[in-house]
Amino acid sequence: MSKGRFITLEGGEGGGKSTQTFRLVERLRRIGLKAEATREPGGAEGAEMIRKLLVEGEPGRWDPQTELLLHFAARRDHLRRTVWPTLERGCWVICDRFADSTMAYQGYGHGLGREAVEALYRLTVGDFKPDLTLILDLPVEEGLKRAALRGGENRYERMGSDFHQRLRDGYLEIARREPGRCVLIDAGGTADQVADAIAATVRDRLKVAI
Ligand code: TMP
Q: Reading across the β-sheet that carries 182-186, which strands appear in turn?
Protein backbone atom coordinates (compact mmCIF):
# COMPACT_ATOMS: atom_id res chain seq x y z
CA MET A 1 0.00 0.00 0.00
CA SER A 2 1.39 3.39 -0.91
CA LYS A 3 1.57 6.17 1.64
CA GLY A 4 -0.88 9.06 1.69
CA ARG A 5 0.09 12.57 0.64
CA PHE A 6 0.48 15.44 3.08
CA ILE A 7 -0.99 18.79 2.00
CA THR A 8 -0.87 21.92 4.17
CA LEU A 9 -2.96 25.09 3.92
CA GLU A 10 -1.29 28.25 5.11
CA GLY A 11 -1.79 32.01 5.32
CA GLY A 12 -2.72 34.87 7.63
CA GLU A 13 -6.00 35.37 9.46
CA GLY A 14 -9.35 35.31 7.64
CA GLY A 15 -8.20 33.63 4.42
CA GLY A 16 -10.69 30.74 4.70
CA LYS A 17 -8.16 27.96 5.40
CA SER A 18 -10.49 25.90 7.60
CA THR A 19 -13.32 25.93 5.05
CA GLN A 20 -10.94 25.06 2.23
CA THR A 21 -9.34 22.24 4.21
CA PHE A 22 -12.72 20.50 4.50
CA ARG A 23 -13.62 21.22 0.89
CA LEU A 24 -10.39 19.68 -0.35
CA VAL A 25 -10.98 16.56 1.78
CA GLU A 26 -14.47 16.24 0.22
CA ARG A 27 -13.10 16.52 -3.32
CA LEU A 28 -10.43 13.89 -2.69
CA ARG A 29 -12.98 11.52 -1.16
CA ARG A 30 -15.27 12.01 -4.17
CA ILE A 31 -12.66 10.39 -6.41
CA GLY A 32 -12.29 7.47 -3.98
CA LEU A 33 -9.18 8.51 -2.07
CA LYS A 34 -8.98 8.20 1.68
CA ALA A 35 -8.48 11.69 3.15
CA GLU A 36 -8.66 13.27 6.62
CA ALA A 37 -8.66 16.90 7.79
CA THR A 38 -6.59 18.02 10.74
CA ARG A 39 -5.20 21.28 12.13
CA GLU A 40 -2.35 22.97 13.97
CA PRO A 41 -1.85 23.86 16.67
CA GLY A 42 -3.86 20.78 17.68
CA GLY A 43 -4.99 17.65 15.88
CA ALA A 44 -4.16 15.25 18.75
CA GLU A 45 -5.26 15.15 22.38
CA GLY A 46 -2.10 16.66 23.92
CA ALA A 47 -1.61 19.09 21.05
CA GLU A 48 -5.17 20.41 21.52
CA MET A 49 -4.35 21.10 25.17
CA ILE A 50 -1.29 23.07 24.10
CA ARG A 51 -3.47 24.90 21.54
CA LYS A 52 -5.63 26.30 24.33
CA LEU A 53 -2.53 27.74 25.99
CA LEU A 54 -1.51 29.37 22.71
CA VAL A 55 -4.74 30.87 21.40
CA GLU A 56 -6.34 32.04 24.66
CA GLY A 57 -5.38 34.96 26.91
CA GLU A 58 -3.52 38.19 26.43
CA PRO A 59 -1.22 38.79 23.42
CA GLY A 60 1.79 39.19 25.77
CA ARG A 61 1.06 36.00 27.74
CA TRP A 62 4.11 34.20 26.28
CA ASP A 63 7.39 35.61 25.12
CA PRO A 64 8.24 34.75 21.49
CA GLN A 65 10.70 31.95 22.37
CA THR A 66 8.25 30.21 24.71
CA GLU A 67 5.57 30.47 22.05
CA LEU A 68 7.95 28.96 19.47
CA LEU A 69 8.66 25.99 21.75
CA LEU A 70 4.98 25.42 22.49
CA HIS A 71 4.14 25.32 18.77
CA PHE A 72 6.84 22.76 18.12
CA ALA A 73 5.82 20.68 21.15
CA ALA A 74 2.24 20.59 19.84
CA ARG A 75 3.52 19.76 16.32
CA ARG A 76 5.63 16.81 17.49
CA ASP A 77 2.64 15.33 19.37
CA HIS A 78 0.37 15.87 16.34
CA LEU A 79 2.85 14.21 13.96
CA ARG A 80 3.44 11.16 16.17
CA ARG A 81 -0.17 10.58 17.18
CA THR A 82 -2.07 11.62 14.07
CA VAL A 83 -0.23 12.64 10.90
CA TRP A 84 2.42 9.93 10.53
CA PRO A 85 0.13 6.95 11.42
CA THR A 86 -2.61 8.27 9.10
CA LEU A 87 -0.22 8.66 6.14
CA GLU A 88 1.19 5.21 6.91
CA ARG A 89 -2.23 3.60 6.34
CA GLY A 90 -2.48 5.18 2.89
CA CYS A 91 -4.75 8.07 3.85
CA TRP A 92 -4.12 11.63 2.63
CA VAL A 93 -3.79 14.24 5.37
CA ILE A 94 -4.97 17.81 4.74
CA CYS A 95 -3.69 20.08 7.46
CA ASP A 96 -5.00 23.55 8.35
CA ARG A 97 -1.60 25.21 9.15
CA PHE A 98 1.78 23.54 9.72
CA ALA A 99 5.39 24.67 10.18
CA ASP A 100 5.21 27.57 7.69
CA SER A 101 2.88 29.19 10.23
CA THR A 102 5.71 29.04 12.76
CA MET A 103 8.12 30.55 10.25
CA ALA A 104 5.62 33.31 9.36
CA TYR A 105 4.24 34.11 12.86
CA GLN A 106 7.20 33.42 15.16
CA GLY A 107 10.10 33.69 12.67
CA TYR A 108 8.97 36.79 10.72
CA GLY A 109 6.07 38.20 12.81
CA HIS A 110 7.83 38.08 16.19
CA GLY A 111 11.26 38.48 14.57
CA LEU A 112 12.89 35.29 15.91
CA GLY A 113 14.43 34.70 12.48
CA ARG A 114 14.64 31.79 10.08
CA GLU A 115 17.51 29.97 11.80
CA ALA A 116 15.79 29.44 15.15
CA VAL A 117 12.70 28.02 13.43
CA GLU A 118 14.75 25.81 11.09
CA ALA A 119 16.81 24.42 14.00
CA LEU A 120 13.72 23.35 15.92
CA TYR A 121 12.19 21.95 12.74
CA ARG A 122 15.21 19.68 12.25
CA LEU A 123 15.03 18.55 15.87
CA THR A 124 11.30 17.82 16.07
CA VAL A 125 10.22 17.08 12.48
CA GLY A 126 13.43 15.91 10.79
CA ASP A 127 13.37 15.37 7.02
CA PHE A 128 9.61 15.08 6.76
CA LYS A 129 7.83 17.89 4.89
CA PRO A 130 4.54 18.54 3.08
CA ASP A 131 4.13 17.23 -0.48
CA LEU A 132 2.32 20.47 -1.28
CA THR A 133 1.65 23.73 0.57
CA LEU A 134 -1.13 26.08 -0.52
CA ILE A 135 -0.63 29.62 0.78
CA LEU A 136 -3.93 31.51 0.84
CA ASP A 137 -2.97 35.12 0.35
CA LEU A 138 -5.07 38.17 1.22
CA PRO A 139 -4.30 41.83 2.07
CA VAL A 140 -3.89 42.16 5.85
CA GLU A 141 -6.80 44.54 6.54
CA GLU A 142 -9.18 42.42 4.46
CA GLY A 143 -8.15 39.25 6.31
CA LEU A 144 -8.49 40.80 9.77
CA LYS A 145 -11.91 42.19 8.81
CA ARG A 146 -13.09 38.76 7.68
CA ALA A 147 -11.67 37.12 10.82
CA ALA A 148 -13.50 39.64 13.03
CA LEU A 149 -16.80 38.93 11.25
CA ARG A 150 -16.28 35.21 11.90
CA GLY A 151 -16.05 36.00 15.67
CA GLY A 152 -14.25 34.05 18.41
CA GLU A 153 -11.16 36.26 18.16
CA ASN A 154 -7.92 34.51 19.17
CA ARG A 155 -4.75 35.92 20.80
CA TYR A 156 -3.02 36.41 17.46
CA GLU A 157 -5.78 38.50 15.92
CA ARG A 158 -5.09 41.13 18.58
CA MET A 159 -1.37 41.48 17.76
CA GLY A 160 -1.66 44.60 15.61
CA SER A 161 -1.47 45.16 11.87
CA ASP A 162 2.35 45.61 11.75
CA PHE A 163 2.72 42.07 13.07
CA HIS A 164 0.24 40.80 10.48
CA GLN A 165 1.99 42.67 7.66
CA ARG A 166 5.34 41.09 8.64
CA LEU A 167 3.85 37.63 8.60
CA ARG A 168 2.16 38.18 5.24
CA ASP A 169 5.50 39.31 3.78
CA GLY A 170 7.04 36.24 5.45
CA TYR A 171 4.64 33.93 3.64
CA LEU A 172 5.43 35.61 0.31
CA GLU A 173 9.14 35.07 1.01
CA ILE A 174 8.53 31.38 1.92
CA ALA A 175 6.68 30.93 -1.41
CA ARG A 176 9.59 32.56 -3.30
CA ARG A 177 12.18 30.37 -1.59
CA GLU A 178 10.40 27.05 -2.11
CA PRO A 179 8.46 27.14 -5.38
CA GLY A 180 8.61 23.34 -5.71
CA ARG A 181 6.52 22.86 -2.57
CA CYS A 182 4.55 26.10 -2.18
CA VAL A 183 1.87 27.66 -4.36
CA LEU A 184 0.28 31.05 -3.68
CA ILE A 185 -3.51 31.07 -3.99
CA ASP A 186 -5.48 34.33 -4.24
CA ALA A 187 -7.91 34.09 -1.31
CA GLY A 188 -9.84 37.19 -2.39
CA GLY A 189 -12.52 35.35 -4.38
CA THR A 190 -15.61 33.44 -3.26
CA ALA A 191 -15.21 30.15 -1.40
CA ASP A 192 -16.14 28.31 -4.64
CA GLN A 193 -13.52 30.16 -6.67
CA VAL A 194 -10.82 29.49 -4.09
CA ALA A 195 -11.83 25.79 -3.87
CA ASP A 196 -11.55 25.53 -7.68
CA ALA A 197 -8.12 27.17 -7.69
CA ILE A 198 -6.96 24.75 -4.99
CA ALA A 199 -8.33 21.72 -6.83
CA ALA A 200 -6.60 22.82 -10.06
CA THR A 201 -3.29 23.15 -8.21
CA VAL A 202 -3.60 19.74 -6.54
CA ARG A 203 -4.51 18.17 -9.90
CA ASP A 204 -1.52 19.74 -11.58
CA ARG A 205 1.08 19.21 -8.83
CA LEU A 206 0.07 15.79 -7.45
CA LYS A 207 -1.41 14.27 -10.62
CA VAL A 208 -4.84 13.30 -9.31
CA ALA A 209 -8.09 13.73 -11.25
CA ILE A 210 -10.02 16.00 -8.89
P1 TMP B 1 -6.34 29.28 13.73
O2 TMP B 1 -6.46 27.80 13.85
O3 TMP B 1 -7.59 30.01 13.92
O4 TMP B 1 -5.59 29.69 12.53
O5 TMP B 1 -5.51 29.75 15.05
C6 TMP B 1 -4.27 29.34 15.35
C7 TMP B 1 -3.43 30.57 15.62
O8 TMP B 1 -2.11 30.15 15.95
C9 TMP B 1 -3.32 31.48 14.41
O10 TMP B 1 -3.59 32.80 14.80
C11 TMP B 1 -1.88 31.34 13.97
C12 TMP B 1 -1.15 30.85 15.19
N13 TMP B 1 -0.02 29.95 14.89
C14 TMP B 1 1.28 30.38 15.13
O15 TMP B 1 1.48 31.52 15.56
N16 TMP B 1 2.32 29.52 14.89
C17 TMP B 1 2.13 28.24 14.44
O18 TMP B 1 3.08 27.48 14.26
C19 TMP B 1 0.75 27.80 14.20
C20 TMP B 1 0.50 26.41 13.70
C21 TMP B 1 -0.27 28.70 14.44
A: 35-39, 92-96, 6-10, 132-137, 182-186
Q: What is the CATH number of the domain that holds 55?
A: 3.40.50.300
Q: Has residue 28 been placed in a domain?
A: yes
Name the nearest CA neighbour of 158 among 70, 56, 44, 42: 56
Q: Which structural domain, as residue segments, surrounds residue 77?
A: 6-206
Q: Which of 156, 158, 163, 164 to mutate to test the pocket of ligand 1 (most atoms within 8 A of CB)?
A: 156
Tally of domains in the chain:
1
Within 10 Å of residue 90's Cβ, how many Cβ atoms?
Answer: 12
Nearest CA, atom 15, ligand 1: 105
Pocket of ligand 1 (CB under 6 A): 39-41, 54-55, 71, 97, 101-102, 105-106, 154, 156
Q: Considering the domain boundaries, does residue 67 fall inside one?
A: yes
1 belongs to a structural domain = no
Ligand 1, pocket-test mutation among 19, 70, 97, most atoms within 8 A of CB: 97
Q: Is residue 120 part of a domain?
A: yes
Is 151 a residue whose pLDDT tops 90?
A: no
The predicted-structure confidence for 54-72, as pLDDT tens digits, reads as follows 999 999 999 999 999 999 9
Average model confidence (pLDDT) across the chain: 97
Read off the pTM.
0.98
